[in-house]
Amino acid sequence: MPTRPEGLGAFAPAKINLFLHVGDKRADGFHDLESLVVFARTGDELHFERAPALSLKVVGPFASKLGLEPDNLVLRAARALCAEAGIEATAKITLTKNLPVASGIGGGSADAAATLKGLNELWDLGLSQEGLFEVAAQLGSDVPVCVASEPAWMEGRGERIMLLGKVARLPIVLVNPGVAVPTGKVFAALNERRGMGVEPPEALDDPGALLAFLESTTNDLEAPAKALAPEIGDALSVLAASPGVVFCRMSGSGATCFALFADDDAADRAAATLAERFPAWWVMRSQIGGAGP
Ligand code: C5P
To answer: Ligand 1: does its nearest atom lie under 6 Å from the Cβ of 76?
Structure first.
């Protein structure tokens, strides 16, 4: 008897903008960006199975925060891929939502990217990474870099990506103070911005050089996001005061903030202390860079 195909899984890691400079607003309404993007070892999980029709089930800690409206990014990604390939959408998708929703770490974008990659494989479409980038760019500014899922220099509205190779391994603690700040609103509240013109540094695999570079940059969206949600300022102050912290900042358009640590023990202690002091916050100990997926 033939065995029933079990389907396949995909990991959708959290995206972190180590810096994010905003340039001019373009004719298409989007702003030009420059950003250094890395991925953490924490993320959402997806599972894909062949099925007669397209369906999505969401489970996990943040499932209830994600409405199953037709414009859900996972379903939109599945439909966009079908349109590209000229086929019917036939898959049962299960999303385990571990990452907070609308939180600046690309949860929705990473899910959409993992959907494109997973269904490309499930349906044997054979689209190249370039082909997936093109579909991804239609879905949102951060989706192409999430298809790459590797350290990248990002430009344009987010669709121009240069893969950077190895980045220093650094322990990280992610904190979300429980407020959702819509990306469009944060851009609309932007007053000051650094503009374009930073070059990717050479020694990204050296922790000291990476941190020195980051000190020379900003996240231009941090100030407007803090103005919209003062809890972001609280999270940043608490992270900055954690023993052993070497750098902290907000990611993307917020509200998730991150802190990088000199060593694993300091990051472990900070995460445990923050989780205890702020039980309503999402606190996640993870890692960026280093070898392996
Ligand atoms: O592309 P995405 O759906 O993530 O963008 C959400 C909103 O954020 C856009 O509608 C736009 O208002 C703003 N945005 C922008 N410039 C970018 C990315 C997003 O102004 N590069």
So the answer is: no
